[in-house]
Amino acid sequence: MSKKQNNASIENIYALDGKVPILKSIPFGLQHVLAMFVANIAPIVIVAGASGLSPRETASLIQTAMIVAGIGTLLQLFSIWKLGARLPIVMGISFTFVSVFCYIASQWGYDAVIGAVIVGGIFEGLLGLFAKYWRRIIAPIVSACVVTAIGFSLLSVGANSFAGGSGSADFGSADNWILGSVTLACCILFNIFAKGHLKQLSVLFGLVVGYIVALCMGMVDMSALEDVSIVSLPEIMPYKPEFNINAIISVCMIFLVSATETIGDTSAMTSTVLNREPTEKEITGSLACDGFVSSLSACFGCMPVTSFSQNVGLLAMSKVINRFTIATGAGILILSGIFPAIGAVLATLPEAVLGGCTIIMFGNIVISGLQMIGSCGFTQRNITIAAISLSIGLGFTQVPEMFDLFPDMIRTIFAENCVAVVFISSIIMNLVLPKDMELKRKKGDNADDE
Questions:
Q1: How buried is residue 91: exposed, middle or buried, by Cβ count under 10 Å (0-12/13-18/19+)?
Q2: pTM above 0.70, yes or no
Q3: Fewer beta carbons below 10 Å: N end or C end of the chain?
Q4: Residues forming beta bridges with residue 307, ordered by sequence position
């Protein structure tokens, strides 16, 4: 190959389509894996802990998560039928469901989580196929409020992990405080001093340092590494699904919230990297892939997958959008899942190390939501929608006793789920408030001046 041809092939990483040599694609694909792998396993570790699953079961779920995330990413990149947007969307296990899954698992067990995800995934998939009929009610300000609420709802989850994991015998101990603080400090320092794309690895750096410190402190449980096979494939239906109506309704509600995030991620990616709005076909494909692959994930005992905002940010920064290049990252995820020792090692992460990393990630979600609100514009209408929906959602759910007069199903969905309350409140406000509030206010001001 001539030098000119070689340069042309390198330039293809900045084009959606085009051939790129495999060896030159791998580093860019690996970068996407590294940018999201902590966030991909963190929800599993948190929910598995709340569900009382063993370290070995947790390791198996991590293994499955990697394979499903890789499959979902490939579908988004290349699509089959109407599944997939044919865009560089990286998929992973969603944080959006963590709060509701922890609640469902504590009430009805992990089997009820799996049953609800199977139904909820089909629900979102069907919504995706008919997105053109309902997408207009999910205005950008609604998506922005939802993302902000998700960030706030997860802060307590991160704090629990930081202290050692809710219900743990050493919760809030000095050892957990030290471990969480060291991990957090390493993430911050790396982010300050690292240059360029290396900043994307700040969470990984904190995770590695925190894990080494935990080993030195004797705080790593190695039981998950016992009798680990070299190569393994996920087991079909490792848990018997339980179809609890309360759990299903709660999860379907959060799938609606997840759908708004996916629309936001798809729109953000096309606008920042491709300089255009997403097409109806791309929105339909991304949502359908989210939903149906989530149901597939549940059939293997795992949690829902969705588009990852971290990777949208990485795309915007690097401008590396070549589908084949991103596909190498999907391949790395699948290979990581096939070799279960990788999942077993990740399952030994102490909760405090995870908390030190996730507290930053959750805070970034809050800031992302606030930035989205700002990008919508601080009109009187948008300010009113954001103020009321966030006040009701975050305020009312701090006092769950307020919901005692409602039926059990309503309490299950809304009493401690601020995301669902913000979602419903913001949609209602967006539908009932007049579109020209700012204009009417200005006219009123002029009349007063006269």
A1: buried
A2: yes
A3: C
A4: 91
